[in-house]
Design brief:
CATH class of the largest domain: Alpha Beta
Shape: elongated
CATH topology of the largest domain: Heat Shock Protein 90
Radius of gyration: 30 Å
Order of helices and strands: EHEHEHEHEHHHHEHHEEHEEHHEE
Number of domains: 3
Strand content: 15-25%
Helix content: 40-55%
Largest sheet: 5 strands, parallel
Strand order of the largest sheet: 2-1-3-4-5
Low-confidence stretches: 173-192, 262-269
CATH architecture of the largest domain: 2-Layer Sandwich
Number of helices: 13
Structural class: alpha/beta
């Protein structure tokens, strides 16, 4: 946005040399300024490289007036994104409306007020800079999502062979691993990857769409000159939240792919790390907020801020995501206002996660089947029978812990997960 001096480039177009001189004196030191005394010269200068960052354009000029110049600027691929501010003594609303319809961003009335001229220029340059950064960020995040999908497709092509190899290794392992191996069938893991990766990528795409919608509404308010400071602050807050959600879910998608690879093959490649449980759980809830916002349920997190764990954060994230999605799909009916609690504590070096909902509960006949692959009571209505099976495999194999479930019909369901606070060598 700036030249080698660090100053923004400003093009002043006016057939009156006194006006050009006045504006140059007013703005010298803040901008690298060039000037044109007619529309034809202005069009040539605007198309040069480097192009101006912003243009002050007089309306009343001979041969080619400011309206025609603006129309040609906006019709040229090289110059269409340069902000144009009209400078004029015309006060009729139809004149102002005509300029805005042609693509101008603002009007400055003659005689000039230095404070207004400087403020308008600064505001539009900052908005242009922010819009450019936002567009680049959306492009970058979209590319990362596409790369994640490509990696998933490549992984699916080789997963069958890796599962077969891992299955042979598990037949000679500890009795607990033998039991887990029965649940790690080829179809379960192949379908599980596609099922689970859909959540973070879907959240990221939803957030990107939400951001685009808000951007369009913001632009319309701005073009209609109805924008307030509160509108701008609200839009900036939405941009910050949405970009954080997009980035977090793209990173989660990568963690999920790595996590599934290590359920299927030797788990020596991924490194564990120390992370704060409370902060990480809050990040998980944030990443799921677009989905959770569509529901009426209240989620309560109780966790001491000092609890830290040396483990696999992607695996913990996947477990909590599956439990939350399981509650949303199975525990509640439409329009229910449920309560979900997540209580985390530490005992004798182990971290205990107690997850509970107050939904419809699980019948006794189904309670001993919930970890079986493809078992679901919501076939065709959002349930695949993979969610809790994946939770079981991750807790038992990846995290080296244990999981227990208790439930009563009409009273809700509670899962208690106990995992080591320090990664054990036999857990991968």
């Amino acid at each position: 946005m700036a030249d080698i001096s660090g100053k923004p480039r400003l093009l002043i177009v006016d057939d009156t040399s006194q006006n050009i001189h006045l504006l140059m004196e007013m703005l010298k030191g803040e901008y690298t300024i060039s000037a044109a005394i007619n529309g034809e010269r202005a069009l040539k200068m605007a198309a040069m490289n480097p192009a101006p960052d912003i243009i002050l354009l007089d309306i009343m000029m001979p041969d080619m007036d400011g309206y025609e110049v603006c129309a040609k600027l906006k019709g040229n691929e090289k110059t269409k994104n340069i902000p144009v501010i009209f400078i004029t003594a015309l006060t009729a609303e139809e004149n102002e409306a005509k300029g805005l319809e042609l693509g101008a961003t603002d009007y400055i009335m003659k005689p000039f007020s230095p404070a207004i001229v400087k403020a308008r220029l600064r505001n539009h340059l900052e908005l242009k800079k922010y819009q450019s950064q936002l567009e680049e960020l959306v492009k970058e995040r979209t590319k990362e999502i596409e790369l994640a999908h490509q990696e998933l497709e490549r992984y699916n092509q080789t997963l069958a062979a890796k599962i077969e190899e891992r299955t042979r290794e598990l037949t000679t392992a500890h009795a607990l691993l033998v039991e887990a191996e029965k649940m790690a069938a080829l179809g379960q893991l192949v379908a599980g990857v596609a099922h689970e990766i859909n959540t973070p990528t879907g959240v990221a795409l939803t957030s990107a769409s939400y951001l685009a919608e808000k951007r369009d509404k913001f632009a319309k308010k701005y073009e209609a000159r109805l924008m307030t400071k509160e509108d701008l602050e609200k839009f900036l807050m939405i941009c910050q939240e949405s970009t954080e959600i997009i980035l977090l879910n793209i990173m989660r998608a990568s963690d999920l792919i790595k996590s599934f690879k290590q359920v299927a093959v030797d788990q020596s490649s991924e490194q564990s790390r120390i992370f704060n449980m409370k902060e990480y759980m809050e990040q998980i809830l944030l990443s799921l907020s677009p989905k959770l916002r569509s529901q009426q349920h209240k989620i309560t997190l109780n966790c001491d801020k000092d609890i830290e764990i040396n483990s696999f954060p992607g695996a913990v994230s996947q477990v909590m995501t599956n439990l939350l999605m399981n509650s949303l799909i199975h525990a509640y009916q439409e329009n229910d206002q449920g309560k979900i609690s997540i209580n985390i504590s530490k005992n004798a070096g182990n971290v205990i996660i107690e997850y509970g909902d107050d939904g419809i509960g699980i019948s006794e006949e189904h309670l001993n089947k919930i970890y079986e692959p493809f078992f679901t009571t919501k076939r065709g209505a959002g349930g695949t029978g993979l969610g809790l099976n994946i939770v079981y495999n991750i807790v038992m194999q990846k995290l080296g812990g244990i999981i227990r479930c208790s439930s009563k019909m009409g009273k809700g369901t509670v899962f208690v997960i106990e995992i080591p606070g320090e990664r054990r060598s036999d857990c991968g």
